[in-house]
Task: structure prediction
Amino acid sequence: MAVGVFDSGLGGLTVLDAVAAHMPDLPLIYFGDNAHAPYGVRDANDIYELTTAAVANMFERGCNLVILACNTASASALRRMQESWVPRDKRVLGVMVPLIEALTERQWGDNSPPREVAVKHTALFATPATVASRAFQRELAFRAIGVDVEAQACGGVVDAIEDGDMILADALVRSHVDALKRKMPNPQAAILGCTHYPLMEQVFQEALGAEVTVFSQAKLVAASLEDYLNRHPHMRGSGDESLFLTTGDPARVSQRATQFLRRPITFVAA
Result:
């Protein structure tokens, strides 16, 4: 009954933790491609090849459903995977859908024409690859009109978090928010378009100001997954144990993950 959660590194643990809080009895297989992180500076073909290799590993371990808890993979690889690679009896879902549902206040299956929404000026903070893909703007345009999205590529933030250097991560976040505000002085909402960024949510909020609504993904994805599994219980898969896999050094990744979630996490080699 395992569900897979994939990320290039440790950021997807924010999603896994939220899913575990929503569905504590659901076995989860986490795959961190730490040996190749970060994905945000890689090209689309490279991201696709690395992501499909990891997802194939989780399929073999009994997952019928894998969540790409990595915005870069969701933006650069998901559509291609769904169109030409994912087996008919499996599913791979991304993390952008719940975010866009929350921002536009409409369900993904609502195929009515795009309409105006309350938020007109939105800041998007993401990795360079996610920003370059324009996937968020493309999906948003199908559902909303009149929304001005200003994207800020947040170079270095993921690396700092992965290295456990939260002082550097704090400084980088504030620098990127300053850069965004020079382009969009008064955003109404901010999208944290990387699953690492919830760890810095308070810093983003402080730098942006209390009047800006900050949308973070982990809880939105967890609630959406719970609803999906209630409607499609067969997608829980055949796996019956939780597992943490990494392509990196298991001891080092376990240490970082334990600091990340503030509870013991033990990774094994993928």
The chain has a mean pLDDT of 92. The longest strand covers residues 121-126. The domain at 3-96+218-269 is CATH 3.40.50.1860 (Rossmann fold).
